[in-house]
Amino acid sequence: MVVTEKNNSLKIVVCLMVGVIFSGMVSVMYLSGSVNLQKFYDVGAIYDIISTEYEKTAENWQYNYSTKLVEISAETGRHPFQIYSKQKKWNYLYLEVRNLSSPIHCRAEFCDSIGNIIYTMDCELQEGRNVLSLQEDSIYSFNLEMQGPSKFHIKRLQFREQAQTFGWGEALMVFGIVFGCFILVMLFIMFLFRREEINTNWRRSVWIEKLQEAYSCLLCNAAGLRKAISAQKIPYVRRALFFVSLLIIYLMFVSGWRWQTLSRRRLVFLLGVCLLLAAVISANPKRRTVNWKNPLMSAWLVLCVMCIVSEFIVGKRFEHVGVFMLGFMGPFYLAWGTMKKPDNLLRDFLAAMRWSYWAACFFCLFFRPAIAGIRYMGIYFNPNSFAGFLATVNIAFLISLDENLNKEKLKFGVLCKNALALASICGFLLMTESLTSIAAYLAQWVVFVWKQFPSEKTHNYQKNLRAYALTALVAIAVTWIPGKLWLEHVPDLLKTKISFEGDAYVTQGNPLTLVANAALEPETGVAERVLSKVRSGDWDSLFSSRTEIWKEYFRQMNLFGHDNYLESLNGKAMSAHNTLVQMMSYHGVFVAVPYLVILYYSIKYGILAVFYKKRSGMSLFFLLVTVNYILQGFAEDLATPFFYISWLTFFIALGGIANQPVKRSVRG
pLDDT of 482-492, one tens digit each? Predict the structure, then answer.
């Protein structure tokens, strides 16, 4: 049995999502007065001075974090600002203030590349929006000088290429009108379809069936390779293939995608071959139990096609993701569904994930010391990236824990390794101080505990649970006392210590560190980071300025996407720090529709699989992977292909989620 579901309600939801996106596009094009499919928000280039810039203390310029007001304590307050954007010629400076204690005189001094003042402009600072029309000179920095004691809140400090000719207050009305017209048009089309009794269901399913037949033919022709490997060796070969896949993902990340185009393509191809070989040696083409007509796989296929179209129109730096999915992951999904015991395929992948964690631990203990006052970055060059890796591999050990709790004979070695891994992952995560990954980690434990309640508790379960609890206490003690001391001192003895200089560190002596440099991020403690964000009371601080990045990405949304990361946050090219936003930026704004459908059905089928009475032994894995992917993806980029272990794990799990033996019929 496979997942079956009436699609009427799904059609309505998809239609509404398309309508919302379409109406948003039309609304901003109408408001900006420009029909521009390459950049919907066509109001010229915009550069925001982020709040952290004017929160810095300067000459008689203080920022009060409790009141969120800039306080000028003398007759003159002065603050310098750097312009980090590549664009240096601007036409307008927007300074919008709130809670101004009294109108004061403001002087703006605009400087060249060496800091000399080119020209100055004066205005009376008023409550609300203050606009200065600039000259045609290139501006590299500027100074704001407030003449007179005052207090005010800076809501916006922004350079613009074009003047703002509309207010967002009218945007809601325009959007409502456009969306209403869209609904009327859709209702009219539905009326015509019903009147003519046109049924397109069979047409839509033909190409899915043809694709499935092509995959089956490929797996049948590769049967000779499968027969060449004995049944006893197949699990070990699969684990090796999965481990190589994880290693490729890691190498492409730490390289920063700096390799030549041909080298990148070869690695992507090698990654695909590893997954395809795992499918070939696992498949049983004689068994036809897979049905790809469910909404999850339909959305996946649509997403892949949209990625291919986007790449054909706009060349990508991270290329061939759609072809990779259809060409390599498709046969993998089919092979999963045709296996007599598909759980074995997943167990081998989880074993490879555990291998990757132990390899990472070895690397950290000998080559990557913990430095006092610095957030720990492990095998990566960024603590958030290492935290994402930890949260993902934690799933492998949680699944092992879930399986072993009901075993009649629990091996002592497995018990110790699993408890030590779970304890050390927690320790590493706390050292990274990554709140997003810690939230995903906690959510995994919530799902794990939630899954335990409907299970029948045997005597073995209670006995194994007590054994795990006792071993976990010992593992925590080992992790926090000798483990931490080892991490701090042993790499120094081996002369692989990393010293920080300015905003980067330099590795000394040993090439095995793999990573050349990384951002310096001061250690503050998880509790302190949470409290500081909660106390800040504003979204920008809560999301660590990600709102500024999201704003810049939304301004540049278009139909077919961009070739690379966009410039944002002081003119630096960086990811969107949100998986959905990054997908829309890569492949076009409408890719959000199939992508959201995939996330919805992944959660739905994952929950159904956990509580289905004939559930798979690996059913918990699907829900854990989906929860981890969504929570991490909210504040981090997991959309960049061939880059993140979380990305690979989710799309590997997708085939298992679609093929779960859960039958539900929902009438739309």
Answer: 888 888 777 77
